[in-house]
Design brief:
The protein is built from one helix and 25 strands. It is mainly β. It has one domain: AttH-like fold (Beta Barrel), CATH 2.40.370. Strands 1, 2, 3, 4, 5, 6, 7, 8, 9, 10, 11, 12 and 13 form a 13-stranded antiparallel β-sheet that branches. Strands 14, 15, 16, 17, 18, 21, 22, 23, 24 and 25 form a ten-stranded antiparallel β-sheet that branches. A hairpin with a 2-residue loop joins strand 21 and strand 22.
Length: 369
């Protein structure tokens, strides 16, 4: 479960946008027999339930589930369950069932203030043999006994790790929220740097978790992101900051910025859907991330800004972490070190919601070419 990926897997992992530790491998791959990956272009109409499923022709894809949980003892926790699908650039004509044409990676973490750091685990497998798959007709992705599946307008997530476990049901309360231009989400000045991207906010959660042998029933609210792309980042990008926020009035807010090599904002975007379903989209000039207090990891020595001010149009939000140490060390699967954590949200000094913040590229710049 915690072994390093084999050499062929390391090559394919260089395509993953969450692989800052593996930069440069893509340029070393064999190109013979490669077919061009499809581009993300404006004008495509997302179709459901088809686009809930996998898009194996594209280079990279992920289903990103995050949320807040409350135990029966009223303890507040955060959680993350993420599955990545990566199409390798190995020769597509290779007929071997053992060739890693598609790789699957999974990360899972629980943010636990009583523990003071994450419970976390990770897996990586090549797709095939029924052991690891991402189906194309609807959301159904798994690695061994780690699973995320959609059925009857609800999701189920099952993860059993060495010292913790999750068994969650997540019911949809709102339709998918299309980000960018009807689901076409630019990630840089070049229109080729883009993804197809929708979110499912305000998921109603119930289920159970286990930590160090102790089981707790839980309830809460979650957020699901689904993105797929072939050329996600601009060549000048260093990393990104992202938030998905479930607000208490039923509205939902997604915002991101892509950082350049000198720490400047290279691109940004956002979506705000009101409680009545009205949607506002925001371009780079309307989204401002301002970092605040920093926390330095005692394990990796990476420094992350863990409090933020976020301006989205005329509104301004303050973000503070459930706990500082929410660093996820996934070097044994995707190669990434990143901060992914539960945050509280204030507006005008009043609590208005909760969500998740992701910070990547703070150890060194992303290098995917």
């Amino acid at each position: 479960m915690r072994t390093s990926p084999p050499p062929a897997a390391r090559l394919a992992l260089a395509l993953c946008t969450l692989c800052p530790a593996l930069g440069g491998f893509a340029a070393q791959e064999q190109r013979a027999g490669d077919s061009a990956l499809p581009a993300v272009v404006p004008g495509y109409t997302l179709q459901f339930p088809r686009d809930f499923g996998s898009h194996p022709q594209f280079g990279i894809e992920w289903w990103y589930l995050t949320g807040w949980l409350t135990t029966a003892r009223q303890q507040q926790l955060g959680f993350q369950v993420t599955f990545f699908r990566i199409r390798s650039r190995l020769d597509a004509s290779n007929p071997s069932a053992f060739a890693p044409h598609q790789l699957l990676i999974a990360h899972c973490a629980i943010s636990d203030p009583q523990r003071g750091r994450l419970w976390q685990d990770q897996r990586i497998r090549r797709a095939g043999f029924g052991l690891a798959e991402a189906q194309s007709t609807d959301t159904k992705v798994w690695i061994d006994d780690w699973r995320l599946e959609r059925s009857d307008d609800a999701y189920s997530a099952q993860v059993t790790a060495a010292d913790f476990a999750l068994s969650l049901s997540l019911a949809s309360t709102q339709p998918p929220m299309l980000n960018g231009q009807a689901g076409y989400s630019r990630k840089g000045p070049d229109t080729a740097s883009a993804s197809y991207y929708y979110s499912q906010p305000q998921l109603r959660v119930s289920g159970s978790i286990v930590r160090a042998g102790r089981s707790d029933t839980v309830s809460g609210v979650a957020w699901l992101d689904h993105e797929w792309s072939s050329e996600y980042l601009d060549r000048n990008a260093a990393g990104w900051d992202w938030v998905g926020l479930n607000l208490d009035d039923g509205s939902a807010l997604m915002a991101f910025r892509i950082r350049g090599r000198q720490g400047q904002s290279l691109w940004a975007g956002g979506t705000l859907r009101g409680a009545l379903g009205d949607v506002q989209t925001f371009g780079p000039a309307q989204v401002l991330f301002t970092p605040g207090r920093r926390w330095r990891s005692p394990r990796t020595a990476v420094s992350y800004p863990v409090t933020w001010s976020l301006r989205l149009g005329e509104r301004e939000f303050e973000l503070s972490p459930l706990l500082d140490d929410q660093e996820n060390d996934a070097r044994q699967s995707s190669g990434a070190i990143y901060w992914e954590g539960a945050v509280r949200v204030q507006e005008r000094a009043r609590g208005v919601g909760r969500g998740y913040l992701e910070l990547t590229g703070y150890d060194h710049p992303l290098s995917l070419r």
